[in-house]
Amino acid sequence: MTSSPAQGCLSGLRVIEMGQLIAGPFCGQLMGDMGADVIKVEPPGVGDPMRQWGRGPQKLWWEVIARNKHSVSANLRVAEGQALVRRLAASADILIENFKPGTLERWGLGPDVMLKDNPRLIVVRISGYGQTGPYAHKAGFGGIAEALGGWRHIVGEPDRPPARMGISIGDTLAASFACMGALGALHSRSISGRGQVVDMALYEAVLQVMESLIPEYDISGEVRERSGSILPGIAPSNVYPCRDGELMIAANKDELFVRLAEAIGQPELATDPYYTTHIARGTHQAELDAIIAAWTRQQSVTDVAAMMDAAGIPAGPIYRAPDMLEDAHFAAREAIAEVMTPRFGPVRMQGCFPFLSATPSTIRKAAPVQVGEDNDAVYGGELGLAPSELADLKARGAI
Fold it and tell me: How far is residue 398 from each of residues 8, 23, 378, measured CA to CA in Å?
């Protein structure tokens, strides 16, 4: 797939992505989807390990996380590679990195240096524990952040060890918050004319979505524990078994519960003191779930979903990838995009979200195939290096 004219709300902005694995590259993916010109800096040779990640015989995660990006190679452990990145950053708007704190400084690429070269630069730093504090020096991955931030302790069944989601939620949360911070810094720059550093810790991204977990303990001494498929005290809201599968039903508001009671043929539940109020339903959550499950087991997923829709009750099936690809709503919203890739031909993947009415995000370019495939265009065409200089840098292992 060849590049098409830039679109999106970040069109005209240059982003240098120096991160590897998930958090930094996902932040770059979000910006690229929104129209930014993203130059991904990869180590010569094997490149970003994300090129080898994913399940199944074909490693396809790269096709998603590296879309809308150009690849240049630079060995950041040698002076020539560091000088190239410094030159790139001198005319960029945003630089993303997710190395261990202190790494950029050791390479002579710390924010103090790059902001001196380019006072308008926004440096987005994503790390396990942040750039300061007693843990800053420690290695940190998303899974560790999920544990420290409180996520892992509350996920799973009460009688089993903490579980995890089947995706790297700690990394993608941090990347999303880092992207949000960069957008805020862009607005600030439009007023002050100056860039700044965005410091995003993985564990703090997880902590931010922990709802009222901290004040519940601080004021009431309440410690949240694992609760399986339910949220304690929020009922009915669960996955219920049907004859041919499962369906998620959420009818925990008073008026919704009245409708649910009527839909399952037991209107008397709505006036039963055990279930008339939000607190009462939460207190008798297990009994209420058992009553609803006894009814849903006699029905098909399709029939229950239709009855819930007719009653205006939120409900939805438990989708897998095949279900998403066949769903008419996904198609109507263009939630699934098809990208023509050099290696695999057409590949279907998630689209660009959120939707902006005037400056829509787009997938304009497939993921780069070769590490450093854009070296000539970027280093030669933009930085003005002659072919002989590029050949010399490559021979010395700098690119």
Answer: 34, 25, 15
